[in-house]
Amino acid sequence: MRAADLDLRELLQFDPQGGVIRFGGQRALLFDAVALGLLRKELIETLSATGARGVLTRFGYAHGWRTAENLKEQFPWDDEGEWRRAGGRLHTLQGLVVVEPLARKVESGTEPFAEAIWHDSYEAEQHLLHLGQADEPVCWTLAGFASGYLSYANGRQVYCIEERCRGKGDAVCHIVGRMREDWGEAIAPHLPFYQSACLDEVLAHVTHELKRAEKRLRARQKELGPKTPAATDPSGLVAQSAAMQKVLELARRVAKVDSTVLITGESGVGKERIARFIHDESARLGGPFVAINCGAVPEGLLESELFGHAKGAFTGATQDRPGLFEAASGGTLFLDEIGELPPAMQVKLLRVLQEREVRRVGENRSRAVDVRVLAATHRDLVAEVHAARFRQDLYYRLRVVEIRVPPLRERREDILPLARTLLQAAAKRTRRPVTGLSPRAANQLLRYSWPGNVRELENAMERAVVLAQGSRIDLDDLPEELGLALPAAYVPGDVRSLEDVEREYILAVLRASGGDKVKAARLLKIGTATLYRKLKRWEGTGRPAA
Ligand code: ZN
Q1: pLDDT (tens digit, 9 = 90+) per residue, 403-462?
Q2: How much distance in Å is there from the Cα of 121 to the middle of ligand 1?
Q3: Which of 116, 119, 367, 491 minimizes the number of CB atoms within 10 Å of its CB?
Q4: 3-state SS class at 450
Q5: Domain boundary residue among 179, 196, 213?
Q6: Residues 113 and 252 in one domain
Q7: 185 and 259 belong to one structural domain
Q8: How far is the CA of 166 from the centre of ligand 1 (A)?
Q9: Residue 54: which domain range?
């Protein structure tokens, strides 16, 4: 490969869980340039400009030396020249400086070994910002980096000196690199900043030690075994919260037992995901996973859908057809919205569960089925049993184990990781270059109560990905109802005053009432005069009225 082939997206690797970023295989840090500028200022004030220049030059030199070594090992270069040029390219990709190499002229003996124009040096910028214009070039770290890189790459001592620098008022920085012997006397004033004689030796020693340490670390990691399981399950279930981790733990346990499971929870909490998870964790993994929404199939068709029918069993039954119980044979049948099952079907389902055989509509023989049934409902089945709308015997048959999936508002730790996962999926689906959430948008997601749960969050993310102007989702891209977020939602570290909560809530209700103050007052069960008085007061404080 060639220096020009280095691509930032390929050099950068990051763990989706966060924490460690790698650049070209080495751990790298994202660092604020201004913080480095402040460190520079501190060094100059503590050590004097000469001392600071020495530290920063040697810091840059070590960085360049290590980078060259690393690049040589990590990439298959077309030739040595490409590897030597890669240092400048890398520096550009890392955002330190834009390197424009100047072509070397034919050897006349006096031409520099390397020469480049530097645009937008972060170092000159920071020096100007914190210390003002200097009398001499100031890109010490960058010059040190170039020297270290070229010295390693060429196996000989190369020094890079800035002849012009933005830090002292020039339009661009201009760097010249020569072999030590070619510099002659001109290098003498610069040498003390490098202390090159011992530096290479020290670095060689450090590298040796580092390699030994890495080897020890690898051996140790092997001993310790695989890393602790990630909080995002491979099946895509996000469980940062203790509540959800408990659900997954229970699901994993019941997966091993071939019993019927009742999955309960509000609409949109992801009951089918849990059912699929149980199937995937069970011995039936190799068999089919068949799902049906009992509430979505007309009563007349449900029996034939579940149990199948014989040819001629009813008008339109032109051929024999197996039902879903047979289709799921050897696997799992997921009966969603089981609470919607009509009474006549409840009896038939109970019989199938008890006898483990189905009878197709219009047939008088039974067929054995080997199916594990998982059922789900958003209804309170106990209440349905009390109201005589759901058979008690079927309820007990289904509810051998019950898994309650908590609503999103009871597992707030999952909101942002889930939002990010759903955002990524939506961006991929819609081919939109959206990669994250603005802090304001993230905060709003945390505040909202999510009555529609994960499904609502998924829809919100998809919509926001389509609307987003840049690479991040901002507040305006979120659905309007999120703006009506329950002000009572408590977000750790962000406690609001009661008055603010009251104001936000009243304004939200007013907006929801289409601005009708009489209606809003009635909903809030306060007098219209009280509402007017409050609105007037908030106007008076200059706070936004809506
Ligand atoms: Zn400079």
Answers
A1: 999 999 899 889 999 999 999 999 999 999 998 998 888 888 988 889 899 999 999 999
A2: 6
A3: 491
A4: coil
A5: 196
A6: no
A7: no
A8: 5
A9: 3-196
- Rounded distance, CA 64 to CA 87, Å? 8
Distances (CA, A) of 293 to 324, 335, 358, 404, 461: 12, 6, 19, 18, 25
Q: How far is the CA of 53 from the centre of ligand 1 (A)?
A: 13
Residue 292 belongs to some domain of the structure: yes
Could you give the strand order of the β-sheet that contains 21-23, starting from the edge strand earlier in sequence? 12-14, 21-23, 26-28
Looking up residue 45, the CATH number of its domain turns out to be 3.30.1380.20
How much distance in Å is there from the Cα of 411 to the middle of ligand 1?
A: 52
Tens digits of per-residue pLDDT, 149-199? 999 988 889 999 999 999 999 999 999 999 988 888 888 888 888 874 445
Distance 129 CA to ligand 1 centre (A): 14
pLDDT for 229 beyond 60: no
Distance from the alpha carbon of residue 89 to the mean position of ligand 1, in angstroms: 17
Asked if 274 and 159 sit in the same domain, the reply is no
Nearest CA-CA partner of 495 in 458, 542, 454, 447: 447
**Burial, 318: exposed, middle or buried (Cβ in 10 Å; 0-12, 13-18, 19+)?**
exposed
What is the pTM assigned to this prediction?
0.54
Tokens matching residue 29? 């840090």
What is the CA(127)–ligand 1 centre distance, in A? 9
Do 30 and 152 sit in the same domain of this protein? Answer: yes
Q: In sequence order, which ranges of 311-387 are alpha helices (DSSP H)?
A: 324-327, 343-355, 381-386
* Separation of CA 161 and ligand 1 centre (Å): 10
Please give the distance, rounded to the nearest whole angstrom, from the Cα atom of residue 162 to the centre of ligand 1. Answer: 7
Q: Do residue 152 and residue 256 come from a single domain? A: no
270 domain-assigned: yes
CA distance 305 to 333: 12
* Span from the CA of 13 to the centroid of ligand 1 (angstroms): 30
- Assess if residue 544 is contained within a domain: no
347-385 per-position pLDDT tens digit: 999 999 999 999 999 998 999 999 999 999 999 999 999
| Domain shared by 173 and 248, yes or no | no
